[in-house]
Design goal:
Low-confidence stretches: 1-13, 257-261
Structural class: mainly alpha
Number of helices: 25
Number of strands: 2
Strand order of the largest sheet: 1-2
Distance between the termini: 58 Å
Order of helices and strands: HHHEEHHHHHHHHHHHHHHHHHHHHHH
Mean pLDDT: 85
């Protein structure tokens, strides 16, 4: 809360950090001078349309690994392209991947928040968590959320702001820390997720170009990704407490006094009893899910019998499960604590939650149209293939090449957010290229995962970026693209440098990357 912030914040950064703070201030001012995000997506779409029309007349030598044919840029100014764009505009918006995830999950989370369940639970968590460990705990939870697909974006990131505000710290710092863990450290996870077999399949296909008998284990990066959690938590902890929080300490929070009082007031006996009842209902839901998924014949399992592979029914049901796991305890708490007295209170709570998403819906519409045009034009694929060809032409030493792969991926990631889409383009080039240099496919994939993670948090084109802006505006109404980018640049740069050095040191020590994962080929 603003009145407590100067006393509660960590010390101001040392003198050598103040120059960086001035750079971030300039970046924030410049970024916030950009048009509104919705208008920015319109302008970028116009650029894509014009550029695609100009480049469609040229022939390129790069082979598109998806079609095995020379890459072609498709003009979005042709009559056919315009007709297709207009005829699919509604489906493009309604099928925008983050849209359904956000709205469905927030219906349940909104009830849990409106009833007071989340606030009560956080008070209990803060009562047993030392303040000094609040930041690393939040980042670690954000990292663990990767297992539940994109749940971290709609669940952990907004809770980061709530947790920090409840602790008397600046909510923007909490949102930044959670965003860094969820998205900047995306491939750092000690729990295998659906991303592992997804990338492995593309790596396997790339390796088979040079060696058809070469196999890649889906958990070939598991040990390295698990150890990477320590790097992300440590670096994120330092950046949050020593750089970001002192920076935002001077930013006033636009929060109503009564809302602040609800965050700090002690639980009444009735609220405490309601909390235990709500937690019991949540535990019962978890137990029911475990019992339903445990049998080998469970319908929640994939045909292979696995629960966490891409396409498994359990993974497809993650968002509805989040809806239920917050809706049920939210209802239990609301009725037990007296926050809800009839079903109308519940519907009103859902309606108020949806009303906060109005601005996001506008941004999502234009973002969806831009991403459609960008993907259809093939401009992103052209840039990725040009970069990979340039890296191959340099013929650098192995360690430098690995760093080059990380940097190439990080730059490409700013334009192409999907991990699988980027790797589908890059794996058929980079994996066999590095195999010819004696570098294993597993090491190449590990390098890719670093670059694929670290620049997510500074790309306004990342599909969840507008949503995080909306989360920030809940506390600081003047938050814009520049504000969020300036908050996340220290994380992005620090993660990129520290994680790259960690991989090089890990490689030098010969520590195992994962299961059946050598460093060299053959």
């Amino acid at each position: 809360m603003p009145s407590e912030q100067p006393e509660q914040s960590p010390p101001l950064p040392r003198a050598e950090l103040r120059g960086a703070s001035r750079v971030l201030d300039a970046l924030e001012r410049a970024g916030n001078k950009l048009p509104d995000p919705a208008v920015l997506f319109v302008l970028l779409a116009a650029v894509v349309v014009v550029l695609s029309a100009a480049l469609a007349t040229l022939q390129f030598s790069e082979i598109d690994p998806r079609t095995k044919q020379p890459l072609v840029v498709h003009s979005q100014l042709s009559g056919k392209a315009i007709t297709e764009f207009l005829s699919t505009m509604v489906q493009t918006f309604t099928g925008f991947p983050p849209l359904g995830v956000v709205l469905v999950a927030l219906l349940g989370v909104g009830i849990a928040e409106r009833s007071g369940f989340i606030n009560a639970g956080l008070k209990k968590v803060l009562a047993v968590t030392p303040r000094v460990l609040l930041t690393p705990m939040l980042i670690l939870v954000a990292i663990a959320s990767h297992t539940a697909a994109d749940a971290g974006y709609v669940l952990v990131i907004p809770l980061g702001g709530v947790i920090f505000q409840a602790a008397g710290r600046h909510p923007l710092a909490g949102i930044a820390a959670a965003f860094a863990g969820v998205s900047g450290g995306f491939s750092a996870n000690f729990i295998p997720s659906s991303l592992d077999p997804l990338l492995q399949g593309l790596t396997q296909a790339g390796a088979s170009i040079l060696d058809p008998k070469r196999t890649v284990n889906p958990l070939c990066n598991w040990f390295f990704c698990s150890a990477s959690c320590l790097v992300i938590v440590a670096v994120g902890w330092y950046i949050t407490d020593r750089v970001i929080e002192p920076r935002v300490a001077r930013t006033p929070v636009d929060a109503a006094p009564e809302a602040e009082q609800r965050m700090t007031a002690a639980l009444t006996p009735r609220e405490a009893r309601a909390l235990w009842l709500a937690l019991a209902s949540m535990a019962a839901g978890v137990a029911l899910l475990v019992a339903a998924s445990a049998p080998a014949s469970s319908p929640l399992r994939a045909p292979s019998g696995q629960l966490t592979v891409s396409g498994a029914p359990l993974m497809s049901a993650i968002v509805p499960l989040i809806f239920l796991f917050f809706l049920v305890p939210g209802l239990v708490y609301g009725y037990a604590a007296g926050a809800f007295t009839s079903h109308r209170d519940v519907i009103d709570g859902m309606s108020k939650t949806m009303s906060t998403m109005a601005y996001y819906l506008v941004m999502a519409f234009f973002a969806a149209q831009f991403i459609y045009l960008f993907n259809r034009s093939n401009l992103g694929a052209l840039l990725a293939l040009k970069g990979a060809a340039g890296l191959q032409a340099l013929a650098l030493p192995s360690a430098v090449t690995i760093v080059g792969v990380i940097l190439l991926t990080a730059l490409t990631n700013i334009l192409i957010g999907s991990a699988s889409a980027k790797w589908a383009l890059l794996a058929p080039i980079l994996v066999p290229m590095l195999m010819s240099l004696g570098i294993s496919p597993e090491l190449t994939q590990a390098a890719y995962r670093i670059g694929d993670s670290t620049t997510n948090i500074i790309s306004p084109l990342m599909v969840y970026f507008p949503l995080v802006v909306v989360f920030c505006q809940k506390y600081v109404k003047g938050t814009g693209i520049g504000t969020l980018v300036a908050l996340m640049v220290p994380y992005s740069v620090s993660f990129l440098v520290a994680w790259t050095l960690f991989l090089l040191a890990y490689w030098q020590l010969g520590l195992p990357l994962g299961l059946d994962a050598p460093y060299v080929y053959p």
